[in-house]
Amino acid sequence: MVHNAMSSEDDSFYAANNDLSLEKALVEGYRGLMLDSCLCNGDTIVDVIQDFVTGNDEDTEENAEEQYLGFCHGTCGAGSRKPETVLNNIKTFLDVNPNEVLILEFEVGEGTLELLYEAINDSGLEKYVLRDEENDGTVTTWPTLQQLISSNRRLLLFAHNGGMESCETSTCPEGIFYTYDHFSQTNWNDGDTCELRGSVDTIPDKHGFFLMNHWKNDENLDLPSKTNAEEFNTYEFLSTRLGKCDERVPNIVAVDFWSTGDVLKFVEDQNTKIGGGGDAVVAASRSGSIRH
User: Fold this and answer.
1) Is the pLDDT reported for residue 239 higher than 90?
2) Which of 177, 170, 167, 171 is nearest to 105 (CA)?
């Protein structure tokens, strides 16, 4: 899985999480994308810095009227992508690759959930989206990859923040699962352990998906670090980290700078070892093709 997949040097993001675009990641073999939705108003990075210096953190009435949905990280002024372009490109990938399954995980910005849902529907991706039988966001048994392919429901959508809450207690948008109903994950900025983020009650085997956050920001600037990725994304480092996950092997590996290192090769080798007898490892936005 690609962490902050919309953020790349290719797409002119400041302090980008990746060198190359998410579209290239899909072509290379990644099958998961993490995307952040934001309300944008046309500000540039210079505007953002000026607002920070002056203490102005509120949009003017004029700017508020011009707000639009974007995929960004933190602020649109540091870079954003048009959802219609990204989602249409993802649809094209699914159109021309009928045996591929994708996971999209959205961090929903405040005030964007309805706009995001509309953008997904407008893109035509709806026909590929997996829905649970009761349409209430609850799943007791996940389909196999082959079942997803055979039914042509090859797109799994998850989201958190921005009004998304547990689908067991709230009404989720049709076809979008609440991430933390189904995901356990390791801590951010941790490449040394397999300790879980959040509640101690979040045991991996209680969820369908176990995500290993395998990236680390620069310790001083708290910005994406290619230097760290050059270490984290090596075959040896990945092997050592995975070996520390005793209770359960992660089935999603999320990375920064997906084109750096040996992530695809590592995941392919892990899935070859597992074969059909266990959980597959999916390099979400930093992984190789899924074997099943």
Assistant:
1) yes
2) 177
Q: Which amino acid would we find at residue 276?
A: G
Half-sphere CA count of 288, side-chain side, radius 13 A: 18
238 located within any domain: yes
Identify the weakest region by mean pLDDT among 78-82, 99-103, 182-186, 286-290.
286-290
Q: Which of 44, 16, 22 is nearest to 34 (CA)?
A: 22
90 found inside a domain: yes
pTM: 0.86
pLDDT digits (tens, 9 = 90+) for 16-29: 999 999 999 999 99
Q: How many domains does the chain have?
A: 1
CB within 8 A of 80, min separation 6: which ones?
Answer: 6, 38, 40, 70, 71, 72
Q: Is residue 219 part of a domain?
A: yes
Beta carbons of 30 and 284 less than 8 angstroms apart: yes
Residue reference for tokens 């849902």: 117
- Tell me 264's DSSP state: H
Measured distance CA(221)–CA(242) in Å, rounded? 27
What CATH number is associated with residue 170?
3.20.20
Q: How many CB atoms are located within 10 Å of the residue 222 CB?
A: 10
Q: Say how far apart CA 251 and CA 1 lie, in whole Å.
A: 10
The answer to whether the beta carbons of residues 215 and 231 sit under 8 Å apart is no
Spatial separation of the C-alpha atoms in residues 95 and 106, rounded to whole Å? 21
Determine the structural domain holding residue 48 and report its residue range.
22-274
* Predicted confidence (pLDDT) per residue in 81-112, tens digit: 999 999 999 999 999 999 999 999 999 999 99
Q: Is residue 35 part of a domain?
A: yes
